[in-house]
Design a protein that fits this description.
Blueprint (H helix, E strand, L loop, with lengths): L1 H4 L14 H5 L3 E4 L2 E3 L13 E3 L9 E3 L6 H9 L5 E3 L9 H8 L2 E5 L11 E3 L5 E4 L2 E5 L8 E5 L3 E5 L3 E3 L4 E3 L9 H10 L7 E4 L5 E2 L2 H17 L1
Parallel strand pairs: 4-5, 5-6, 6-7, 11-14
Antiparallel strand pairs: 1-2, 2-3, 3-4, 8-9, 9-10, 10-11, 12-13, 14-15
């Protein structure tokens, strides 16, 4: 799976192994109907992408950020009913979004301030305030890492955070990436405080580690992260 997911094909083997095992493992179930896509893209700096599988009457499947275009993955996603929405958290992690959009005729969603119009995105978010995409999905603008960064909240449970928020096993806490803040650290700190208004149990980042805990513990960790951001 590591060999297949590697964005730069830097992982190999000294013995013959059947790569089909790794290929067939993706998309990998994380929890309930949320999957990790694998097949990360060098053009997105190896960022993770995710797939929410929903029936059509709930709005259909949602791809969060773009994996690299790989026919094996595309066929698997097609067999899982394709993609209705492609949510792009920010401009760094768009990878092969145009090919996925063409293949699945899906609606791409991205913020104006990260070049959505130049990228031909169908649903351009212009607001600084949260946008309800459908009953279960809320797009929350969180400028900081980039000017137009957004996170996606699903079912008040799964928070897809792009490069805004992640879990650090070294610090054993939620973190933001101070050294990879391309727009404004002060704005990112303000944006982090917006998340106080929401409940979530999962942080699913593009970079860094996934984290799962109770709503109460997540809120406590978020407060710790905000206080740390104010100090650095």
């Amino acid at each position: 799976m590591a060999l297949v997911a590697c964005p730069t094909a830097s992982i190999g083997t000294t013995k013959h192994h059947n790569a089909r095992i790794g290929i067939d493992a993706f998309p990998e179930l994380i929890s309930e109907n949320v999957y990790f896509c694998g097949f990360t893209a060098e053009s997105s700096f190896g960022a993770w992408s995710y797939l929410i599988v929903r029936p059509d009457d709930e709005g259909g499947n949602v791809l969060i950020d773009s994996p690299r275009w790989a026919t094996q993955l595309v066929k698997k996603i097609e067999a899982m009913s394709g993609v209705r929405k492609l949510f792009l958290t920010h401009k760094d992690d768009v990878a092969d979004h145009s090919r996925f959009a063409e293949k699945f005729n899906c609606e791409r969603i991205m913020h104006l301030n990260d070049g959505a119009e130049r990228s031909g995105v169908e649903n351009v978010i212009r607001s600084d305030h949260p946008v309800q995409l459908d009953q279960d999905l809320i797009a929350i603008p969180v400028p900081g890492h980039t000017r137009g960064h957004m996170v996606l909240l699903y079912r008040n449970k799964f928070l897809f955070t792009g490069d805004h928020l992640a879990w650090s096993p070294n610090r054993n806490s939620l973190i933001a990436f101070r050294s990879a803040c391309w727009y404004s650290w002060s704005e990112q700190t303000k944006s982090m405080q917006k998340l106080r208004d929401y409940e979530f149990e999962w942080v699913l980042p593009g970079h860094g580690r996934i984290h799962h805990d109770s709503v109460t513990s997540m809120q406590a960790e978020l407060e710790r992260c905000i206080e740390w951001m104010k100090r650095v």
